[in-house]
Design a protein that fits this description.
Chain lengths: 351, 351
């Protein structure tokens, strides 16, 4: 298979971890006789520095003319302290999602056997957890009208959803459930929000087309509690943009490190793959960042193109590295000095 | 001291647990020579059944003419399955908060030594946790304009905040921090929301009046993660309505049972005290519901009127009951058949 992959390394540890993912994809290409072409472009704080724009036109164009996008991370402390700044790195990511209509963000959450003891949660709570979170990514309060009164004393954000926006991500969630454990849990706040009541109505209707899938409802406050009390009850979680942001970061504690969590953001035409972790500025260029999330995002990219054996091999290599403690310090208390690139090397060699 | 206390037992286990709190308050009154007068009124599903109104005028009037309100719980499954119903129990609670201007919801989260092993979190993560959450309670997306298009295909909720709404709850949080560990963490989503940016600006300004308090910021997604990874980092958490709903329910896992968590909702004129748990319909009238949250809410009521020794005694009695395993089944694996009323009796006798 021939694929052109746009690489957007972004800020902080983004470039380092993305490099490992590229290494792994190249190994896969040579092993399975594919042609993967990589083209790099700026996004985030580095794009503001270079082009005064967190998402330069050239970057967007490259993304639109590529088959898939491999994303690193964005964010820089110099903007974090001033969230009112006119131009901010996050805008690049949000605009990319919107422009490419990446309406579904998919985050698998798994408890790896060899890492059960790394989690703040007790072993018996997380052993066997296997969740797939479907978060709506281009609607809701993220993209609704924002207003600030002239005197700067009143602010507002509008949360808006249409039936169509709910339907398209809901279908993906139900389809995923069919190839998993046949359960979808809709997380909402239908006892308070009008948008949540619309979600409940639309998703209930759609569920009728998936007779083999059980549909459950959970208020978001309760969901945040259940995620810790008994995460094994979940199979596929479906939710709106803001709740998905919170619940999926919370769920990352199950795996023992956010450095393991991959994600795919997909739409009708485009697809982007990125680690869940951020730019982790303190670790930049120290060769200590965990590349597994980025490498597993590459595996999701392979799955997206139905290269299932290839993806399987990457995941196997990752599991092997975890078992052998070829891991960065965030999850490795056994060996010192296993660097970002060493983990990448091991996984590359394994393939 | 003479106090008239409006009692709103509400639905499900509300009446049972509230009865224990009343018992405890009566014991305190006789021990310390106070006069507490209790007057009961309907709220929630039971008020819909009896008056076709989740917050009857008589109830609101009673609250307004009382010194404090002791609240049970609201919610009934017959409404949960239909969040689009015109009249719903939750409306009673939301209207009460709004009408009485209870703008700050205060939830203490503590890891009790004798319950450390009940939590899904590991002992070393939670040992010593002592957090006080200040949630804004009468603004934000809960009370903003809600719209549903005529064809029912587009819905919206407006999240709105004014400087004043932020200031008044922020002052309470900073004052609390001064009598605790001098740290306030503002939880927001300032990298996305205009309202969060207003929160950050206003709270940063207010912090200048409290030079001895350190102010920290955390994005809500990160906060949901940090609450589990390292809850000991928190002293006072300050946040808006929706985020507070999610984060405080999540934090309840630290204590080992939501059946232990008390809350106070306060405004300039009125104050209401209620357990964090809901109506728990499955347990209704089984005499198994944990009354501790309601009893600790009564302790918060006492503190509100600066009856500190009285409150201290109630808390001591609760800790004693926990240590001796005089506890309901949710946290008791040692003795069978310790009922709601037995726990109440023990605490009453202790006092
Ligand atoms: C960086 C931020 C805007 C983003 C979000 O909130 O969506 C991030 O937290 C994420 O989840 O990808
Ligand atoms: C019942 C519901 C409306 C309420 C809320 O969301 O505020 C509850 O979850 C709470 O936290 O008191």
């Amino acid at each position: 298979m021939k694929l052109q992959i746009a690489v957007l390394p972004g800020d902080g540890i983004g470039p380092e971890v993305t490099n490992q993912a590229i290494k792994v994809l190249k190994a896969i290409a040579s092993e399975f006789d594919h042609t993967f072409k990589f083209k790099t472009a700026d996004v985030g704080a580095v794009a503001i520095d270079n082009h005064n724009n967190p998402l330069p036109d050239a970057t967007l164009k490259l993304c639109k003319s590529s088959d898939a996008i491999l994303f690193g991370a964005i964010g820089h402390p110099k903007y974090d302290n001033d969230p009112s700044a006119k131009v901010r790195p996050e805008q690049g990511l949000l605009k990319l999602r919107k422009e490419l209509e990446l309406f579904a963000n998919i985050r698998p959450v798994k408890a790896y056997e060899s890492l059960l003891d790394k989690s703040p949660l007790k072993r018996h709570i997380i052993k066997g957890v296997d969740i797939s979170i479907y978060r709506e990514l281009t609607g809701g309060i993220y993209f609704g009208k924002k207003e600030l009164s002239e005197d700067g004393n009143v602010a507002s954000d509008l949360c808006e959803y249409s039936r169509e926006e709910i339907e398209r991500v809901a279908h993906l969630a139900f389809e995923a459930a069919q190839s998993r454990n046949n359960k979808v849990t809709l997380v909402d706040k239908a006892n308070v929000l009008e948008t949540s009541r619309l979600w409940r109505r639309v998703v209930t209707e759609i569920a009728k087309q998936y007779g083999d899938v059980e549909l459950d409802f959970l208020f978001v406050d309760n969901a945040a509690m259940q995620m810790i009390l008994n995460p094994k009850q979940f199979d596929v979680i479906l939710t709106e943009n803001m709740f998905g942001d919170i619940i999926s970061d919370e769920a990352s504690v199950i795996g023992g490190s956010i450095g393991l969590l991959a994600s795919a953001s997909v739409g009708k035409k485009y697809a982007m793959f990125e680690p869940v972790h951020g730019s982790f500025p303190q670790a930049t260029n120290k060769n200590i960042a965990n590349p597994v999330a980025s490498i597993l995002s590459a595996a999701m990219l392979l799955e997206h193109f139905e290269l299932f054996s290839e993806a399987q091999l990457v995941k196997l290599a990752v599991e092997k590295s975890l078992k052998l403690h070829i891991s960065t310090p965030d999850i490795n208390s056994k060996y010192d000095n296993v660097s970002t690139s060493k983990v990448g090397d091991f996984i590359e060699d394994f393939i």
